[in-house]
Amino acid sequence: MRVKRGTTKKARHNKLLAGTKGYRGTYSKLIKRAKEATLHAGEYSYAHRKRRAGQYRRVWIKSINAVCLQNGTKYSVFINNLKKAAVKLDRKILAYLAVNNTTALNTLVQGVSVNAKQ
Q1: CATH number of residue 38's parent domain
Q2: How far apart are CA 77 and CA 116, in angstroms?
Q3: In angstroms, what CA-CA distances link 35 with 9, 10, 25?
Q4: Is the distance from CB of 95 to CB of 102 less than 8 angstroms?
Q5: What is the rounded distance in angstroms from the CA atom of residue 79 to the CA atom of residue 90?
């Protein structure tokens, strides 16, 4: 007996076009172009998930650097002094302190710089 695939194929195409909603031009209208766009979008999203961690690290470093400059020290010197003092705080925690509890980070910057001079 012959199997007609019209409904199955139409459903698959509709699912594909629903995933490309918002894409520009034929990438959201034509099946072949939509499939290509979906494949490329998947590759980009995978690669950019990996990059996102580095982007967050850069943002953390900028917020820590702002507090360091207010206290008259450089970011690199502050991090080096933290390592010498064996303080085990990572940049994520330091950035959280820079945003939410600036006084605590100020005292940490000043305390570490005093210990490094001795």
Answers
A1: 1.10.1900.20
A2: 10
A3: 14, 14, 14
A4: no
A5: 10
Residue 67 belongs to what domain range?
6-117
DSSP 29: T
User: How far apart are alpha carbons 100 and 111 in whole angstroms?
Assistant: 19
Q: What are the pLDDT digits (tens) for 57-116?
A: 999 999 999 999 998 999 999 999 999 888 899 999 999 999 999 899 889 988 887 776
CB atoms within 10 A of CB 67: 21
User: What does DSSP assign to residue 26?
Assistant: G
What letters, b where the CB count within 10 A reaches 16 and e where it falls short, cover 51-62? eeeeeeeeebbe
Establish if 1 belongs to a structural domain: no
pTM of the predicted model over 0.70:
no
